[in-house]
Amino acid sequence: MAAVKFEQAMARLEAIVGELEKSDLPLDESLKIFEEGIRLSKNCLKILEEAEHKVEVLVQDKNGKKRIHAYSPDDAADEPSS
Amino acid sequence: MLFRSSAVRLRFALQEGLQVIVRGRLTVYEPRGEYQIVLDMVEPKGIGALQLAFEQLKERLATEGLFDQDRKKSIPAFPRTVGVVTSLTGAAIRDILAVLRRRWPTLQILIAPVQVQGESAGRQIAEALTALNNLGSVDVIIVGRGGGSLEDLWSFNEEIVVRAIAASHVPVVSAVGHEIDVTLADFVADLRAPTPSAAAEAVVPVLAEIVERLRELTVRLGQVMLRQCAFERQRLDAGIRGVTDVRFRLQEAAQRTDDMVDRLREMVQQLLAAGRERVHGVQRNLSGLNPILAIKQGLATVPQLSKRLEGQMGVMLVQHRHRIHATLAQLNTLSPLAILGRGYSILQTVPAGQILHRANDVRVGQELEAQLASGRLSCTVTQVFNDSSV
Questions:
Q1: What domain range is B370 assigned to?
Q2: Contact across the interface for A82 and B211, Cβ inside 8 Å
Q3: pLDDT higher than 60, residue B175
Q4: Sign of the dihedral defined by the CA atoms of residues A44, A45, A50, A55, in that order
């Protein structure tokens, strides 16, 4: 799931920064996880940028099948607002 | 009558015409002789039954373990798609959409519209939860509605709803009514939000903050790497300096070693020469002490010495011969024979051979012998003359 992927990516990125800031890693090790961090950071940003705002409604048609429609706020009222 | 202490415990306001069920003690107020009922419980009529049902269902489901804390799933930190189970027309959906859009503008929202009160509301809510679960793309579900009376909120106490929430694989956040309203859906949900807005806030972080966090992490990542690179660079420089230094020191040491080897060689040479010299000296001394030489020398001196000895001996012999000759001549002059030669004779008694010096020493008639320079005479004394005149 994308959400899990993003969450894991962020967690890993935090861990990488933390580990690098402890600065007790040999240089090649640091470079390796630094590259991983950069990759993660780009991926995270991509996930954030790629997502598009979408509000949809799950509706049941006449045959009882569930369909997803774009949401328009002026649907019929079935509950008075409180 | 109702004492104030009991009145404050009422959850509702007492109004004219309200039907209530009461419980109390019947007493007599003696001073006036009136009967009184002192109330300890007042309940709106009809609500009591719901409340009872609520308590009974709550206890049953709790016994089943549906409300257990360890059943609760964690809410994902960054949901991509949020499902919302509520009415399309209530204040709840407006609040939720507003908060979600504000916090996470690119969020995907999937609304499963349901009636949130009335006969079929419970079944609809349960079905919507199942439908959202079946889609597979929903990360978290908000289920709820705006505030209302206890009856309005009743659907969220229905067993079918509680069980649908419990069965959901997707984490469910409940948001029913206002903060003071507590339904069984709240007990079973993975997270209870006091209001629909709060549920929306609980479900998504603020995108701007996450982007900022991501940016900050990226910056720190770069900074820390740069810092380490700079540090490693410094170490490398120090290392290079060290190596250069070592090379220089090595050259220096090599030179010093060469010098020392030279000096050592010189010293050894000197020592050797001195040693050789001493050996020669000793050899020289030794050869000086060689007995053969001494013997040779000695042997050489022997003939000399013997020659000298011989010479000396000759001289001495001559001297001695002269001395002997002189002594003999001297002796000769002293010899009685020499005196006899001059005409003297020596008288001796016979046979004693005593040389006579005085006449008195002989008697008349005595035989004497006279030694002459040549030959002897036997004489007889005829007369003795005292030579007093002499």
A1: 338-380
A2: no
A3: yes
A4: positive
Q: Confidence band (pLDDT; 50, 70, 90) for B390?
A: very low
B142 domain residue, yes or no: yes
- Most A CBs within 10 A among B106, B204, B233, B234, hence the mutation to make, goes to B106
Residue B239 included in any domain: yes
* Subunit contact A3:B207, Cβ cutoff 8 A: no
**What pLDDT digit, counting tens, does each position of B21-48 carry?**
788 888 888 888 888 888 877 776 766 6
CB contact under 8 A, B106 and A52: yes
> Is the confidence at residue B122, as pLDDT, over 90?
yes
pTM attached to this predicted model: 0.57
Burial readout B208-244 (b: 16 or more C-beta within 10 A, e: otherwise): eebeebbeebbebbeebbeebeeeeeeeeeeeeeeee
- Tell me, yes or no, whether B320 lies in a domain: no
Task: Count Cβ atoms within 10 A of the Cβ of residue B100 and give its class: 0-12 exposed, 13-18 middle, 19 or more buried.
Answer: buried
CATH number at residue B171: 3.40.50.261
Distance from CA of B77 to the nearest CA of A (A): 6
DSSP letters spanning B281-314: HHHHHHHHT-HHHHHHHHHHHHHHHHHHHHHHHH
Phi (first) and psi of residue B110, to 5 degrees: -120, 115
> Among B101, B117, B231, whose Cβ lies nearest the Cβ of A79?
B117
Structure tokens at B255: 């030179």
Q: Report the b/e string of A5-17 with b at 16+ CB within 10 A.
A: ebbebbeebeebb
pLDDT over 80 (residue B287)? no
A4 within some domain: yes
Rounded to whole angstroms, the Cα distance separating B246 from A59 reads 81
What is the span of the domain harbouring residue A33?
1-74
Whole-number Å distance between alpha carbons of B123 and B132: 14
Task: Quick: pLDDT tens for B51-74.
Answer: 777 888 898 999 999 999 999 999
Q: A32 CA to chain B: closest CA distance, Å?
A: 11
Instruction: Using only the alpha carbons of chain B, give its radius of gyration.
Output: 84
Q: Which residues of B touch A27 (CB under 8 A)?
A: 228-229, 232
Task: Flag whether pLDDT at B111 surpasses 70.
Answer: yes
Residues B103, B191, single domain; the answer is yes
A38 in B contact zone (CB under 8 Å):
yes
Residue A54 sits at φ, ψ, to 5 deg, of -150, 125
Banded model confidence at residue B190, pLDDT cuts 50, 70, 90:
very high
